[in-house]
Write the structure tokens for this entry.
Amino acid sequence: MIQGDNKKAKKENRQFGYMLFLHTYGRDIKWNPHIHSLICEGYFDKFNKYHKYEYFPYIKLRKSFMFELHKSMKKYIKYYKSEYEYSKFCKLIKWLEKKYPQGYYAYGPKINKKYDHHLSVKQLTNYIARYASHPAIAESRILELDLSNHMVKYYYDPHEDDVLDEDDPNRLGRQYVYESVFKFMKKLVRHIPNKGFHNIRYYGFYSKRSTIDTSSIHPLYSTCELKKIKQNINWNKKMKLTYGYEPLLCSCGKRMEICYNFCFFPPPKGPKQLSIDDFDEEGNLYA
């Protein structure tokens, strides 16, 4: 969409940076796969010079998204499926293009320049980092667990209310769900990605494979800040920050440690973990 048929853009060989993250769930934990895209408001040219680029026409984005999605799916179905399925899919595309003449849904609000300064960008970055990696439902939304009847109660706020005023009679309001624990678990487990599947991907000059030198751009976070953020990713730190207690601290005052000889966890890579079975009666290590 940015390159298009623009001769200047092609001559510059513009390189953008963007991140995509996939969510498979809606607020009510239903199956609703969708992609969030974060695009840098700038690009690098073939001379490794950075240029600002702040205008993204969202009307065109809707149609471009529809066209590129259909093209990609047609290519896949034509290669992997039968001619009958391919013909059926082409008819579906024509029907969809008539039903959605403005393209598929694409939401991209403009940032209020009044609050667009260094601090607000950091706050926005922190919010997006949490939002990109959050689970299908927050624990705080689970209100009640009835173990005797195997029932659970939770709530969600509908998307429809986001665009309506608080006094609008069409607002649905907070929705409460009281259902079987087994049905609730069935909804949750389908959002667990397959092993090795990456929900977040980096493209353009954000990619590790990029050869573009971005050292001229002032980083948003310093090395010390990044190091501190990475330290807090540890599950032990997360439990302490969230619930206010140290999960590995025993009531006796000592820290609990994993004994790999008496558990099912695989030992860490490195030197072999010795046990009492590795020594003879005199305390000498077996060969």
In short: The radius of gyration is 26 Å.
